[in-house]
Amino acid sequence: MRFLKTQVIVNPESNKGRTRQRWKYIKEGIKVFIKEFKYEFTEKPLQAIEITRDAIKSGSDLIIGVGGDGTMNEIANGFFEDRKIINPEATLGIVPSGTGCDFTKSLNIPSGLKNALKVITQARSALIDIGKVTFKNHSGKDSERFFVNISDFGIGGEVVRKVNQKRMDRKATSYLRCLISTMIQYRNKRLRIRINDRELLVDDYLAGVVANGRIFGKGMKIAPSAKLDDGLFDFVLIKAMKFLEFCRHGWKIYTGSHLSVSKISLIRAEKIEALPEGNEEVLIELDGEQLGKLPAIFEIVPQNFLVKGNLLV
């Protein structure tokens, strides 16, 4: 497919501000592969949504995101308006430049600027599924958002909130370090879960991970067999664990061998509902951004989003 008009959207603060420092190098690299393009820096949260939406309405059919998973989430949401995709032929290309670039692993985009640009200009556009979640924002109002990789609730929401807060405070951190420190004091949540309108028993859970892609948390293979174009979520449900029990099994997430643990189950589904029992707050995150809390409804939107990548058959 030959693209007529290209818009590049850059999150200069991604990768702890290194994207801003490397932008001249990135821009020159893009010029080698794409002769004409416009670019714009984001200056505040959610701005990439509006930049993308305006660009597509103005005729851009290739949107290149320079940043991490959170940036790609905003750009993906900009492809839609009033719950409908603006231009079904518009395509996302990714130049990974973030602290978390887990989505690119499911797209088999190799590391390195030149390799990413080769994928954008030479790989076929893949038609993938996208997730839609309805949830409560922090003001208690109903909100809706799309996600491309993974959304989860429970301890993951708490961890992402802590990771993002430490970044704002300019403190060095990692997902794993925040996961361990959060787990020490975390209380498992009593939840009601419905899968494809079938209700599970109310139980205590550590986390529920709604996966479109395979990997999150900077390398955790939470859903090792997930496919981006099969029309189903891989829903990984983790029952209540104590800290020592988690330490005994938690490392297995990095190898993808955790699904053999008795308290961890994998269910493939098109729709998942999660509701807290009682008034306890249960946070959710989408593509590495902590945006709200349960109750929430997760729904797959099958093969509705074009992205440059190499999907495995």
Give a topology summary.
Elements: E1 6-10, H1 18-33, E2 38-41, H2 47-57, E3 62-67, H3 69-78, E4 80-81, E5 84-85, E6 91-96, H4 103-106, H5 113-122, E7 125-137, E8 142-147, E9 150-154, H6 155-168, H7 175-185, E10 189-195, E11 198-199, E12 203-211, E13 233-239, H8 243-249, E14 264-269, E15 271-276, E16 283-286, E17 289-308
Parallel strand pairs: 1-2, 1-3, 3-6, 6-17
Antiparallel strand pairs: 4-5, 7-8, 7-17, 9-12, 9-16, 10-11, 10-12, 10-15, 12-13, 13-14, 15-17, 16-17
Helix pairs in contact: 1-5, 2-3, 6-7
Structure overview:
The chain has 313 residues and is of the alpha+beta class. It has two domains: 6-123, Probable inorganic polyphosphate/atp-NAD kinase, domain 1 (Rossmann fold, 3-Layer(aba) Sandwich); 131-303, Tumour Suppressor Smad4 (Sandwich), CATH 2.60.200. It contains eight helices and 17 strands. The chain has helices at 18-33, 47-57, 69-78, 103-106, 113-122, 155-168, 175-185, 243-249, and strands spanning 6-10, 38-41, 62-67, 80-81, 84-85, 91-96, 125-137, 142-147, 150-154, 189-195, 198-199, 203-211, 233-239, 264-269, 271-276, 283-286, 289-308. Strands 9-12-10-15-17-16 form a six-stranded antiparallel barrel. α1 crosses α5 (113-122). The radius of gyration is 19 Å and the shape is globular. The model has no long low-confidence stretch (mean pLDDT 94).
